[in-house]
Amino acid sequence: MTQPSPPSNQTDSDPIADSKCEMKQTQDLDVGAAILNGTIHPVEVDSDEARKFLDKSCVSYAALWGMVEDAHLVNDQYSWLTTIFYLGYMAGEFPINMLFQKFDIAKTCGIFIILWGATLLSMTAGHNFAGLATARLFLGILEAGVSPCFVLLTTMFYTRSEQPLRTSIWFSMNGVANILGGLIAYGIGHLHAALPAWKFPFIIFGSITIVWGIIFILVTPSNPTKAKWLSEREKEVAVLRVLENETGIDNKTFKMEQVKEALLDPRFWLINLHCLANTIPNGAVSAFAPLIVNGFGFTKFESTLLGMPSGASQVLALWISGYLATRFKGIRHFLMIGGLLVALLGGVLIFALPESNRVGRLIGYYLLVGFSVNFVLSLTLLQSNVAGRTKKTMFASSFFVSYCVGNLIGPQLFFSREAPRYQSGFASMIVCFVVQIAIVIVMYTVNARENKRRDLLNPNGPEDQHATAVSLGLSDMTDVQNLHFRYVL
């Protein structure tokens, strides 16, 4: 067991209470280290999320600038390029996440990022469906651990109350990437070079990824005790702060009893079903975004530029929802439902409005960002409501397997014969949004009832309950075993 422990010189006083006086110092350190070093939740994570989104979006930009024609893709082969990526992702999810528990999580993740960039560069050598599909398969395998790595790093550096805003910030880099990618793709469309324009996205983003992977390895710590720029006292403060999570910090022992508990926990199946329903629309939008806007009646150049406001609205929505979830207790599920209602309105507008109403359908497209709010907040529930290192690995791995399955299904519901309206695709989105609302209500009910039941079992009040929960969390007890643990609502 290699779990970081509290400082050896602590007294009988409550170490968490003692650490409160250091909070401002730690917050200042958070900001400074984020700018300079990559930090308490590394800025590498923020930037890498943007880079990751750009890498995945390369294929849609390439399709806009001639890849489909040059590679002689026919029928639904373009959709399958998206689908096969997630087949690889799904195959790599559990093995790679088990590596993260056994080895240094940040260094291992950095190696995968470098290999990912090299594979992205190899896409330029693909001249047919088989070549492109092979590269996409390996891209999926290599990405499998990146987002779970970010989730686990966030739990190791931030308290449960702080996690929603930080997770929203690093996930909002998808929106930033949408804006940057649109600008770059627009510029690529104006290039006049011997090399086909569709290859430039892979060259640009593949090269950036390799460089960033090296930076990630050099700078990103796997837990607070390994942050080289922190003093010993600051490391102590960082560890003491996250003890409040009641989930421990790290543990290298893989425990089969926690695997069994995860599979028997109704929250495991609820959050996976929720993720599946959420990522069916995501898979479709990620793969078809430029083509969807182009189908509204805009030119290729207009479609590229008009996709950028979607990124801006996503950033805004995620930052606002993350702030609210951090500022106010017990509202995460309600924020999720709010985001879904916005996305539902967007889906209905696109599906129901006539083709002549280009502006109305475009507004509907922008409103679809509401489901990304839902996805991020569900991630924060996974971070905050699962204790036990192996159990957390199971939840995170299965969550992203569900993410893969949804992204596999989504593009297949956008049939080329239905272009440009894609009626089946948008109808399926509407159904998924409704299903998610129902699941969120059930999740809230399950957690609220369990909290109430545990309150009745503990006669000593919340302060005693919390102190005991912290102590038991350090012993790698799960949220089910630790009856002093309370679920975040």
UniProtKB/TrEMBL annotation:
Arranged from A to Z, the UniProt key words for this protein are:
Membrane, Transmembrane, Transmembrane helix, Transport
Check the record and name the PROSITE patterns matching this protein.
MFS
Q: What superkingdom does the record give?
A: Eukaryota
* Membrane topology of this protein: Multi-pass membrane protein
Q: Where in the cell is it found?
A: Membrane
CC annotations in GO: membrane
Query: Which InterPro entries does the entry link to?
Result: MFS, MFS_dom, MFS_trans_sf
The segment(s) forming the Major facilitator superfamily (MFS) profile domain are: 30-450
Q: Which GO terms describe its molecular function?
A: transmembrane transporter activity
Q: What is the protein name for this chain? A: Major facilitator superfamily (MFS) profile domain-containing protein
Task: Show the stretches that span the lipid bilayer.
Answer: 78-96, 108-125, 137-157, 169-188, 200-219, 334-353, 365-382, 394-414, 426-446
